[in-house]
Design a protein that fits this description.
Blueprint: H1 3-17, E1 30-35, E2 52-56, E3 70-76, H2 90-101, E4 105-111, E5 138-141, E6 151-154, H3 159-176, E7 183-187, H4 216-229, E8 235-238, H5 244-253, E9 262-268, H6 275-278, H7 281-284, E10 296-300, H8 312-322, E11 326-328, H9 338-341, H10 347-359, E12 364-373, E13 378-387, E14 397-404, E15 410-415, E16 428-437, E17 444-454, E18 476-483
């Protein structure tokens, strides 16, 4: 064999045994569209944050598919500051820690007064008849001649009483820490019976000289001290018509809080309670749209099964009319032990309470998605989202596209242009298109999913889409992407 032929044969043999050189890694092109099935409202027991039933005073009496994501308690001033300047916030801090350990956020109210004619003072003992008071910082009144006992009525207009109230809230804010992400909302309290911004007119039938009912300026000061202490938390204010000026200040005029102030609507289920506003539609108009940007939080007035007017059906009608988002999970059928109260209701009453929560608040559904992926990794995701509820979300949820590998780890995420707060409810929908270039990932299959994420410093679990196709954790797989 000539030397030339030998070299050629050697080269051919080497070529036949050398490993093949792999081509460049690439994504498998994909063009896929899917539609999804919304859970019917009649059976939608999805539990999400800041909607539906919240844990009320350590009670959850209406059965749910999962524990509530929000817990609520309230406290008396005397239990937080027994001696002037000596604070004990452990009751609040312990309840906050317990809620967090249970996967909940925490809401609260501080009160200076409780009910009537119980002969008790709920402000600290050092307040009463203190030398700094103008007229004793309060007085005793018989607000109901048919009930034994008297009621201590704080002098809401006393400057020193207001100063000490402000100091309490400032110290509490320092104890909780600035911008605490574990706080769901704060009831603007302190003023009024139970801190609920109303006092019986009979309390002022014969007050001491120098004491009058709270002025609008004083009411505004009690609201302002909350806003100054907690400027970046979500607040809600009580709705009685007598508090119209306070609502005007808190909801429409003040510029202290970074979040719009919401509404606290008590006496849910009491027939005629909301007539104080529905009979004054022109005055309610100023506040009627507040639900579009801040929550309406409610609490029942106790009702008894079988009452023809004060009942769950009334509550359900009120919730729909006023876009109420959150409901206390307790304080009904109060004549019975807690373990019996739900079972004591009729089937129709139970259904009204279940349906009220299903119909209220946000119910976000992914209606459809389209995924386009090029071999070079250019990804386009179009998603149509819909809110079948009666109100939007009030916390900031960012809708993200996420790639999950076979081990369940998120290896890439991209923020979509979706804005859940813009979908106010009633079936409002919008389509959002987002574009990314995927990174160079190892070969394999990846699940592309949609997840609504809480981006706060103490993030909640993903928001659960109200669709049948969602995963257990609430996210939605929209396609499988393959990289070779």
């Amino acid at each position: 064999m000539s030397r030339l032929n030998h070299l050629i044969a050697t080269a051919l043999l080497a070529a036949s045994t050398a490993p093949a050189i792999a081509g460049p890694k690439a994504w498998t092109a994909l063009n896929a569209s899917r539609t999804y099935t919304a859970i019917p409202v009649t059976s939608d027991d999805t539990v999400n944050p800041l909607r539906g039933y919240y844990r009320w005073q350590n009670q959850e009496l209406v059965p749910q598919s999962a524990p509530s994501k929000d817990a609520y308690r309230r406290y008396y001033w005397k239990d937080l500051e027994a001696t002037e300047g000596q604070y004990n916030f452990s009751p609040i801090l312990n309840d906050l820690a317990a809620a967090k350990s249970q996967g909940r956020k925490f809401a609260f109210r501080v009160r200076m007064m409780a009910g009537y004619d119980d002969n008790l003072v709920y402000a600290p003992a050092y307040i009463v008849n203190n030398a700094n008071c103008q007229v004793g910082c309060g007085f005793w009144a018989d607000t109901d001649a048919t009930v034994p006992g008297q009621t201590f009525i704080p002098d809401w207009n006393d400057p020193w009483l207001q100063q000490r109230s402000r100091a309490l809230l400032s110290e509490l804010a320092a104890a909780l820490g600035p911008n605490n992400p574990d706080i769901a909302w704060i009831d603007v309290g302190m003023y009024g019976q139970y801190g609920e911004w109303a006092v019986r007119s009979s309390a002022y039938t014969n007050p001491p000289a120098g004491i009058t009912a709270a002025t609008n300026a004083s009411k505004r000061e009690f609201a302002k001290m909350h806003f100054d202490a907690f400027p970046n938390q979500q607040h809600v204010m009580f709705t009685p018509y007598s508090n119209k000026d306070g609502l005007t200040y808190g909801l429409l005029e003040q510029t202290i809080t970074s979040r719009p102030v919401g509404i606290r609507a008590d006496c849910l289920s009491r027939y005629g309670y909301f007539d104080q506003w529905t009979n004054r539609p022109s005055e309610w108009a100023a506040f009627a749209g507040q639900w579009q940007k801040a929550p309406v939080v409610s609490e029942f007035c106790p009702f008894t099964s079988g009452d023809p007017q004060n009942n769950p059906a009334t509550a359900r009608q009120q919730a729909a009319a006023f876009h109420i988002t959150l409901f206390s999970n307790g304080n009904f059928e109060t004549s019975r032990p807690d373990a019996e109260r739900w079972g004591a209701l009729t089937a129709a009453e139970q259904n009204d309470l279940l349906m009220m929560a299903r119909e209220s608040g946000y119910r976000y559904a992914v209606a459809s998605t389209t995924v386009n992926l090029t071999s070079g990794g250019a990804l386009t995701l179009t998603a149509t989202l819909r809110n079948d509820g009666s109100a939007p979300a009030y916390e900031t949820w960012l809708v993200k596209a996420e790639l999950v590998n076979s081990s369940g780890a998120i290896v890439w995420s991209g923020q979509t242009s979706a804005n859940l707060k813009a979908l106010l409810g009633g079936g409002a929908s919008a389509s959002y298109q987002s574009n990314w270039t995927l990174p160079a990932l190892p070969a394999g299959d990846y699940t592309l999913r949609l997840a609504a994420r809480d981006t706060s410093a103490s993030p909640r679990a993903p928001l659960k889409w109200s669709i049948n196709e969602r995963a257990t954790d609430g996210t939605l797989a929209v396609a499988t992407l393959h990289r070779r």
